[in-house]
Amino acid sequence: MKELDCYERSINGVVVMVEPYSQKQHTQQVIYRILDANLDRGREGLRIIEEWCRFGLDDPQLAQECKQLRQELASWHTNELRAARDTPGDPGTQLSHPQEETRGSVTSLLQANFCRVEEAFRVLEEYGKLYKPGMGQAFKQMRYQVYTLETRMMGYQRHQLLWRSHLYLVTSSNCDNLFETVEATLKGGLTLVQYRHKTADDIIRLEEAKKLKELCRTYGALFIVNDRIDIALAVNADGVHLGQQDTPVAIARQLLGPQRLIGRSTTNPGEMQKAIAEGVDYIGVGPVYQTPTKQDKPAVGLEYVKHAAKNCSIPWFAIGGIDTNNINDVIDAGASRIAVVRSLMQAEQPTLVTQYLLSQLNRVGSESAD
User: Which run of H or of E encompasses 139?
Assistant: First the structure.
């Protein structure tokens, strides 16, 4: 095989002449550097995820899974691979992207690092086939483990955030500034958004859902799609909200899996108990007051709110005509979570109204704690 000519190389700022070696040896060194870089990348990403499992979720099992994966990576990180490292000569150390400079939330941080680990494992799977027998298959299996870990962990995150969410925005189709309004509420501290548009074409729904999903991801909020399981899956939403006449919960769960959220509208105690038995993650209780959003449904008043406060074992949101004028009546009836449409979608200052509604709801939580 033809030898390479001598060439200059900078090592720690000093230019030296490097002895020629065969093309095969050169390719081998390149593969070693790729494997070394991605083993480091995978271990770093896993450590970031592990720290949140340990300190953020207080989940020893998830933390242990991350640790075991890191240790398995370490077993493949041989001295031979480490010796090929050339940090000063690596052009990748100078590459960056604006999205890497900041993280909008813990959720976006975790998702970025899961992507980082999965990409590293894919590289290790392919280039590992050129290094040692069994390495490609080993990293294929580890990549699937990470996919499963991500699903479980993000599902855990979703359920935790659902329990912490006390104000729920349902979008309306007659808002001229949909994205600006939703972002304004997110800036005010909102952590739960449902996209609802009954009349738009699917292309428009898909585009709007994608943009809203990205907004919610940036601010660390949950994103739910009304009715449409297909759109929820297409945009990787956190779940769906179903009415009484929509897809049965069992089928929705089969399609969405155990980690995504499913909500159900209820108007009476019977529907509430059925929804809980079907395994939904939360329910809507209402409409408390008459609202144009639900013209076909009579208001159920505060009695159903009082019943839910005493009997509902899962998160529930009072909904229907609730605004800044009557929120305290709903709270007095036992509600600690509410869902609104017009109060925020038609507000002149959505951020301030969001902050006010949250302050009233948080006050209830503080008094309960006392």
Answer: helix 135-164
Percentage with pLDDT > 70 across the chain: 88
Does the annotation place 293 within a ligand binding site? yes
Average pLDDT over residues 95-117: 77
Could you give the CA distance from residue 277 to residue 311 in angstroms, rounded to a whole number? Answer: 13
Domain boundary among 159, 181, 211: 159
227 among annotated binding-site residues: yes
CATH label of the domain that carries residue 232: 3.20.20.70
Residues 318 and 291: their CA atoms lie apart, in Å, by 13
Q: Is 294 annotated as a binding residue?
A: yes
Residue 172 domain flag: yes
Task: Quickly state the pLDDT bin for 17 (edges 50, 70, 90).
Answer: low
Q: Which one is catalytic: 213, 294, 337, 343?
A: 294
Is position 265 annotated as part of the catalytic site? Answer: yes
Query: Does residue 294 carry a catalytic annotation?
Result: yes
pLDDT tens-digit profile of 242-257? 999 999 999 999 999 9
Q: Are strands 7-11 and 14-18 parallel, antiparallel or unpaired?
A: antiparallel
Q: Do 181 and 215 lie in a common domain?
A: yes
56 is in an annotated binding site: no
Same domain, 174 and 301: yes
Tens-place pLDDT, residues 324-334? 999 999 999 99
224 and 302 co-located in one domain: yes
User: Which of 196, 260, 264, 337 is flagged as catalytic?
Assistant: 196
Range of the domain at 170: 165-369
CA distance linking residue 96 with residue 184, whole number of Å:
29
Among candidate residues 213, 265, 337, 343, the one labeled active-site is: 265
216 with 283, same domain?
Answer: yes
- Number of structural domains the chain divides into: 2
The strand ranges marked E within the chain are 7-11, 14-18, 167-170, 192-195, 222-226, 239-242, 261-266, 282-285, 316-319, 338-340
Omega before residue 133 within 30° of 0, cis:
no
On whether both 27 and 112 belong to a single domain, the answer is yes
* Placement of tokens 């925020």 in the chain: 344
Question: Within 10 Å of residue 158's Cβ, how many Cβ atoms?
Answer: 18
**Residue 12 within any structural domain of the chain:** no
